[in-house]
Write a structure and sequence with these properties.
Elements (H helix, E strand, L loop, with lengths): L1 H8 L5 E5 L7 H14 L3 E9 L4 E4 L1 H19 L3 H6 L15 H19 L2 H25 L3 H17 L9 H10 L3 H18 L9
Parallel strand pairs: 1-2
Antiparallel strand pairs: 2-3
Helix pairs in contact: 3-7, 5-6, 6-7, 8-9
């Protein structure tokens, strides 16, 4: 990091290349941990290589290494409702424009629904958020059923293995009908205090009125 900071101060870009070949059996795991730590500190990861000695070739393992980004992104969405890391993994720009050519329509629909939910939870306008929750529930179901029929796409396969955690974290609020109390509780449990207060202000008076806890006169 001292070397990297000195180079960055000179305006240079620092890229880390890694050869994962050889060493003790746990050496690769230690190297991966160090690489993730350096990447967290702003070091760009370049070539990740492994020497296939029997085949006399050097293989590039960047696709395997980038799986850590996808897993971290799925955890980020499950815990905090943020989808930025997943979109970066699949090649989307930050603002999520048109789908990349290597992404199927089914996966794009799911990622778009996740993105819309992530954006609406920030703003927390109840009407738009409730629509986003319903859409996410609908698209997740369609994605699951579609995958069961013709699951061949590798990118869809990645998300299919990660959706169990997402569905577990979101099971309280997913469904055709929005439960305002469960949505409010989800916001609290995931650290969205401002959104929870907004929902409380907007929805709890309606709930109290609907359940006849209190009655309001026109005055």
């Amino acid at each position: 990091m001292a070397y990297a900071e000195a180079k960055k101060a000179q305006g240079d870009e620092v890229v880390l290349h890694a050869d994962l070949t050889g060493g003790l059996r746990h050496a690769v795991m230690l190297m991966l941990a160090v690489m993730r730590l350096l990447q967290y500190n702003g070091i760009e990861i370049g070539k990740v290589l492994y020497s296939n000695y029997p085949a006399k070739i050097v293989e590039e393992a960047n696709d395997i290494y980038s799986l850590f980004d996808l897993i971290a992104g799925a955890d980020e969405f499950a815990q905090f409702g943020s989808v930025s890391a997943i979109l970066r993994y699949f090649g989307y720009d930050k603002e999520m424009p048109e789908k990349p050519p290597h992404i199927s329509e089914r996966l794009h629909s799911l990622l778009f629904a996740m993105h819309r939910f992530a954006e609406e939870i920030k703003v927390c306008h109840y009407g738009a958020l409730s629509h986003a929750v319903r859409d996410l529930s609908k698209v997740l179901k369609e994605f699951r059923e579609g995958r069961e029929m013709d699951g061949a796409d590798i990118n869809e396969g990645m998300i299919a293995q990660l959706r169990f955690r997402v569905e577990e974290e979101y099971k309280e609020i997913l469904g055709e009908k929005i439960d305002d109390v469960k949505l409010l509780r989800w916001c609290v449990n995931h650290g969205y205090w401002q959104q929870a207060l907004t929902l409380f202000t907007e929805r709890v008076p309606e709930i109290l009125k609907a359940r006849k806890v209190l009655q309001l006169s026109p005055e």
